[in-house]
Write a structure and sequence with these properties.
Blueprint: H1 6-17, E1 29-35, E2 40-44, H2 57-67, E3 73-80, H3 90-100, E4 105-108, E5 111-114, H4 115-118
Parallel strand pairs: 3-4
Antiparallel strand pairs: 1-2, 1-3, 4-5
This protein binds tetrahydrodeoxyuridine (THU).
The site of tetrahydrodeoxyuridine (THU) has 13 residues, from helix 2.
Length: 125
Amino acid sequence: METINWEALRAAAVEAAAKAYCPYSKLQVGSAAVCDDGRLVVGCNVENGSYGVTLCAECTMAGQLRLTGGGRFVAVACRSGQGELLMPCGRCRQLLYELGGPDCLVDTPRGIIPMREVLPDAFEL
Ligand code: THU
């Protein structure tokens, strides 16, 4: 597996955050992932007036993974539009776990760690 360019991945997440539709929270969220074939996919949050319907950045990125060729996430970074590190919410950790697996690397305040540590004892069918 190629070396991950984490600075480029973080920058891609910030760039994606600028595309967010977030009139309610005003929090722009972007996510970026390197896939197992080396391509980059990104996502941004898309809110809704029925708040619970809101799509997190990781959700739209999951759609991009599938729409642009499938495969698996191998490295993920999430950032606000201001460049702050944001952690995926609980639901999105489950989403990343399913599409990246336990070895998928995530940029966290504790450093770069695998999904198995971001979501211990994950639900798996
Ligand atoms: N949000 C994400 O995009 N990803 C997460 O993992 C957590 C939360 C978004 C949803 C909403 O638009 C905003 O952040 C505030 O909750």
